[in-house]
Design goal:
By secondary structure, this protein is mainly β. The protein has one domain: Sandwich (Immunoglobulin-like), CATH 2.60.40. The protein contains 1 helix and 10 strands, in the order H-E-E-E-E-E-E-E-E-E-E. The radius of gyration is 18 Å and the shape is globular.
């Protein structure tokens, strides 16, 4: 086997092992996406990210073809008590052995310039990018009827 073929085989094995490691340490639960209606140009996704690893990790980015721009956002209250959404460039720490909740009114994934309206029952492809675990690809169900503020399975209809 020529050197380049051996190198590619090793690279593929390492890449697969890294992806498997990410799937072993980082899991996503209770994910859902929503927008304010069919004419909305923006939407958001919420979820619980669990880190079962021995070291903290950091969600540093997010990608999706569902919108022109996808960013990690949070809400911040200004001096006048007005909540503003801000881009969190440094991302969110996911502590070792713990979870981080992305919820309405808090940290979340923001979709700006939606490619198409979010439709009830559809899914939105999202790639979460972690500092250590790398990329974790998920399909986030669209739930326009959910009224909770995030957390484990707290639905209200």
């Amino acid at each position: 086997m020529p050197f380049s073929s051996k190198f590619m085989a090793v690279l593929a094995a390492v890449t697969f092992a890294s992806a498997a490691m990410a799937q072993d340490t980082i899991t996503v639960e209770d994910a859902y996406a929503r927008s304010a209606g069919k004419a909305a140009k923006a939407g958001a996704a919420f979820m619980v990210i669990q880190n079962s690893g021995d070291a903290e990790d950091r969600l540093i980015g997010v990608q999706s073809d569902a919108a022109a721009r996808v960013e990690l956002h949070t809400h911040q209250i200004d001096a006048n008590g007005v909540a503003k959404m801000i881009h969190v460039e440094e991302g969110f720490v996911i502590p070792a052995g713990e979870s981080h909740i992305l919820k309405r009114g808090g940290d979340h994934v923001m979709f700006m310039g939606l490619a198409a309206p979010f439709e009830q029952g559809e899914t939105v492809p999202v790639t979460l990018i972690f500092e250590k675990a790398g990329e974790v690809v998920i399909e986030v169900p669209v739930d326009l009827e959910r009224h909770d503020t995030g957390g484990h399975g707290s639905h209200s209809n």
